[in-house]
Amino acid sequence: MKKNFLLIIFVGIMSSGCFLVQSIEPFYTSDISIEAPKKILGSWREFKLNNESYIDTDILKLVFSGTDMIVIPNDGKQLHFQTQFFKIEDQIYLDFVIDASQNELNSLDNFLAFTHSVCRVMIENDQLVLYFIDLKSLKKYLNKHLKISFKEILSEDINYKKRILITSSSSELTEMLRQIGSNKEIFPDNNKIILKREINRINRNK
After folding, report:
1. Cα separation of 112 and 108, whole Å?
2. How would residue 145 be classed by pLDDT, with cut points 50, 70 and 90?
3. Can you give the residue ranges of every domain in the chain?
4. d(CA 176, CA 107)
5. Which residue in 48, 71, 68 sits closest to 60, CA to CA?
6. Helix %, strand %, coil % of the chain (to 5)
7. DSSP 103
8. CA 17/CA 87 separation, integer angstroms
9. pLDDT at residue 114 above 60?
10. What's the maximum distance between 2 C-alpha atoms anywhere in the chain?
11. What pLDDT is stored for residue 73 in this prediction?
12. Quick one: which of 83, 78, 150, 164 has its CA closest to 119?
């Protein structure tokens, strides 16, 4: 069976086996969009904290440039995203959607190519930290806020796990993020990716 490369990448950029929350509409409105912070531009590698030391996972590399993000897993294949940074109060977020013009997509991937995902962005010292939404905690929130419309979609390609697809408007999504942005249950520490600026490394194939 042919592997769904796009879904594998989506899972690969999330820690703890959690799944991206997706939306038909962008998670931002034009009035809160900002340029990509200069500190974020360039190449970053994923690190894990192990016994108070940061270890290069050698699993994931992200490259930011303007309105583009390239995700490069350890097999060297590249996945291109169109990105938009935006700010709600003092929180910076990243909305990203697959760039269908730059990637070969199969029929399942085509669905993902038209949906937006989001993460909260923090720059801490020399680290870039991306916080992703916890699916279960968000579901609890959504069930109490009926203005946010969503569907649960079964992902047959990933052990029949469920994903959330939000169908509300961008203005409703920004209001949702305004309410949940500081919620540590919805954006928990165990749903984050820690990245450090990439330095020149010796080509291991030499």
Report:
1. 7
2. confident
3. 5-197
4. 31
5. 71
6. 20, 40, 40
7. S
8. 27
9. yes
10. 57
11. 73
12. 83
